Amino acid sequence: MSIKENDFDFESMKDKALEQLRSGASLYGKNGAFAPLMKKFLEAALEAEMEGHMDEVERSSGNRRNGKSSKQIRTSDGTIDIDTPRDRRSNFEPQLIKKRETILAESLEKKILGMYGLGMSLRDISNHIKEMYDTDISHSTLSSITDKIIPEVKEWQSRSLDSLYTIVWMDAMHYKVKEDHRFVSRAVYNILGVDRNGHKHLLGMYVSENEGANFWLSVLTDLQNRGVEDILIACIDNLKGFSEAIQSVFPDTEVQTCVVHQIRNSLKYVASKDQKEFMNDLKPVYRADTLDLAGLRMDELQDKWGEKYPVVIDSWRRNWERLTTYFRYDKSIRKLIYTTNTIEGFHRQVRKVTKTKGAFTSDMALLKLIYLAHKNIKKKWTMPLANWGTTAQKLAIWFPGRMVLDLQ
User: Fold this and answer.
1) 3-state DSSP assignment of residue 65
2) What count of other Cβ atoms lies within 10 Å of the Cβ of residue 51?
3) Which of 6, 56, 129, 291 is the most buried (most CB within 10 A)?
4) Could you read off the pLDDT of 200-243 as tens digits, one per residue?
């Protein structure tokens, strides 16, 4: 089938096109000047594909044409109604517009995924598409489009990793997921690492019912199975058993427990009237220039507050070795590792995207959105950490044989 000139009133089409161009209306969408031309083009192309399909072999086997069916195709310029040819055996597989395909423009799918990755709800996306492109897309169609990211997510979760990461932060985020008609809690475990060249990477993302040392052990084992052989410094919160889980998989890793987490937990058990004074006495401990000075300030803190808050002081004493790992390094390294602020900053950016979601329909729906949010966030991770050249040299001295500089 060909597109014949006498099928159209070109003068009327020209006048309508000029008017729509001036008004900014879509030329190809519903009532667009070029919509009939696009419809004819698509139908002609489908007819050509059917002619190719109905070759001598097909005809000799008894297959024949079987009329046409109507179908709506969404494009980035609007919705087009077309008639698609059918055959009796239903084995005709058109390539231009595949069976059950309702989105023609790949760019429209990219726009939908982009909006979803910015945290827009399916309802908001549908309304935006309607307003911008004059085309209706159902929630089920939008959901099927976002599901196309699932294989990419799974492949990303299983990708190979570098053998060495210099600093790794590990922390969890918490969400609600619908399961068996009820809402349950989920912990999303994130591992953010810095490679030997100073670039940040999200190494992994895992979902579990809750945060615990046993699950962290399985996470660390997965990192090892994907190629990680060594981590120089791991920064964690003060979850019980977490340090032991790390060192069972990576025995040479230095573990730094987050000082800020320790402070927050301590203040829960300090009376509100004492908190300001207690913090003034605590700051010289974790801000000391050396480990020896930190120890002296800790003794002074205990002398003053030990009798009134023995549980708080005992917690600092029991966790002292993990809390003070950062004193072994200079201030540039200390700033990076004495808290989990780096990964908490990543989490804050993710929550800007997920905050509109009261609960997720499944674990995969949760992972999809965080993965797409991460893809947007990592666009800013193009440069190594500040002053990484100097930091890398110091790490090479502190970890001889493990941190090897790539020098010619």
Assistant:
1) strand
2) 12
3) 129
4) 999 999 988 766 777 888 899 999 999 999 999 999 887 777 88
Two structure tokens written together for 210: 């809750």
The string of DSSP codes covering 196-223 is TTS-EEEEEEEEESS--HHHHHHHHHHH
Tokens 């009133």 sit on residue: 9
The answer to whether 78 and 35 are in contact (CB under 8 A) is yes
Domain ends where: 68, 96, 124? 96
Encoded amino acid at 328, one letter: R
CB atoms within 10 A of CB 374: 20
Token pair of 66, please? 């079987």
Domain count, the chain: 2
Residue 324: phi, psi to the nearest 5? -110, 15
Does residue 117 lie in a domain region?
no
| Claim to verify: residue 302 and residue 223 sit in the same structural domain | yes
Q: What number is the average pLDDT over the span 394-408?
A: 86
As a whole number of angstroms, the distance between CA 354 and CA 344 comes to: 15
Q: Which residue has the tokens 């990576």?
A: 250
**How do beta strands 78-87 and 164-179 pair?**
unpaired
Last residue of a domain, one of 75, 96, 117: 96
Residue 19 included in any domain: yes
Q: What span, in angstroms and rounded, lies between the C-alpha atoms of 81 and 229?
A: 57
Q: Is 338 exposed, middle or buried (0-12, 13-18, 19+ CB in 10 A)?
A: buried
- 74, part of any domain: yes
Residue 254 sits in which domain range? 160-398
Q: Is residue 267 part of a domain?
A: yes
